[in-house]
């Protein structure tokens, strides 16, 4: 069942031959409008910091950011901005950065397999698929604007994965799909539904498929205060280099369960042994819907909490993290509100943590709007 009560069902109850009778609806991805109270806000200025706009942080960047841990600590302090409001506007700004482009949804064609919508492909990008007529079929119907499907001869998941994989290689060679990861994502109408085929991870947003991930906040309690372990991404990572991250996160590939994947990521990213990572608690999910040019990200992130011993210090094993720092939770909230230091979707996961652990309360104006906006995408 979808978490967003307004999202349209992806189940199409008609055969492909009767598509003209069906109005394909794009999923609802709008954020509730919120009338912010006026409050003084002083932007951060660093002489050596390349400012990141919400747009650039959501889209990803290959240019490393240049802030230091000292900058993070300094801006996190309550006294850094004594006029800072206790309002939620900074949180809403970060959520909005992951939910752009709703006005461009009409430019995308439904990607249909076995009468179910599994993704959305931009009309211009779909033109590239016309060269592969033995794999992709582009239909143009006057009533629904058309759709994309796979050739009827591709009946099994294995045949589809192989054929589509060859197309992705060709598109990658033409630099139409950059950053090939050699990691497969399942193509399905919703989580737990039958898998129609597997798709290269880098191609997922170009086909608008549902993508899932596991994200974990690792925290410590000492002297009556909660702290979060925060990671700083390697400056050579191809996506969001040098930005802040929570302790552990990873996409959910085909053929692995959430819990198993989380334990694997815990070991690789933070050196957390299974004896500890197995204690991680699943606490819910967040979702967002982001359109950036031909890319349509429809992501659901499963959230986990792990309470760690005071003496544990994370140690990256795969070279993707530059370092870690233990920061009071309230100070982490200040960094999210005041800066664009965090990878955009990580901000959403931490905001969810702040709500669940009482750092945001019903007394904060806009509390219910914030809860709703954490599932701005199709959460199914």
TrEMBL record:
Domain Nudix hydrolase stretches: 211-352
Pfam families per record: DUF4743 (PF15916), NUDIX (PF00293)
Keywords, ordered alphabetically: Hydrolase
Matching CDD domains: NUDIX_Tnr3_like
GO MF entry, a single one: 8-oxo-dGDP phosphatase activity
Annotated signal peptide: none
InterPro entries, per the entry: DUF4743, NUDIX_hydrolase-like_dom_sf, NUDIX_hydrolase_dom
General function of this protein: Probably mediates the hydrolysis of some nucleoside diphosphate derivatives.
Protein family: Belongs to the Nudix hydrolase family.
Protein name listed in UniProt: Nudix hydrolase 20, chloroplastic isoform X1
UniProt organism field: Theobroma cacao (Cacao)
Name of the encoding gene: LOC18588642
